[in-house]
Design goal:
Mean pLDDT: 83
Low-confidence stretches: none
CATH class of the largest domain: Mainly Alpha
Helix content: over 70%
Radius of gyration: 17 Å
Structural class: mainly alpha
Strand content: under 5%
Distance between the termini: 35 Å
CATH architecture of the largest domain: Orthogonal Bundle
Length: 158
């Protein structure tokens, strides 16, 4: 935060006043079309046996909204072609999702397991919404959630 404030020519206290924590500054800089902190908190708060289903439902719920989807697709395309955008995407996943969900898991390698779950969902979203591979692209979202939730649960369990 201090380095960013210095580069912006403002007092670091001003940064903390407007953004609070580093996570909020990162979210503001990316401007995702959803509430990442709320989603991460909802996943972390779920009962362990329901966490994967909630994660998949929230994840695909965002993607299923056409207005949000276009913005997310633009972010994904940028991350695939520009290193700086990819770094921002990584930081976003680490700071917002990983820092909130991984501590809620029991057992070893919680960060790796959360990243595997996020990567799995991300790969499916690329296949479904960007590349539009059939029958994935036209499958009902409820069917997709039921299909992937057990796999995601495996990642999240110890």
């Amino acid at each position: 935060m201090r380095r960013i404030a210095s580069r912006a020519g403002v007092d670091p206290a001003l940064m903390y006043h407007y953004f609070g924590a580093k996570e909020r500054l990162l979210v503001a800089s990316i401007e995702p079309p959803f509430d990442p902190e709320g989603i991460a908190s909802a996943i972390a708060a779920a009962a362990p046996s329901e966490r994967a289903r909630r994660m998949a439902a929230l994840y695909f719920g965002v993607w299923e909204d056409p207005a949000k989807r276009e913005s997310i697709l633009a972010m994904v395309r940028s991350a695939m072609t520009q290193q700086s955008a990819a770094e921002l995407f990584r930081q976003f996943a680490d700071v917002v999702m990983l820092s909130r969900v991984a501590p809620a898991l029991r057992g070893p390698n919680s960060e790796l397991r959360v990243e595997a779950a996020i990567s799995h969902l991300f790969g499916i979203s690329v296949a479904r919404y960007l590349v539009k591979i059939e029958p994935m692209a036209s499958a009902p979202v409820g069917e997709l959630i039921s299909l992937v939730a057990p796999v995601i649960q495996r990642y999240l369990d110890e």
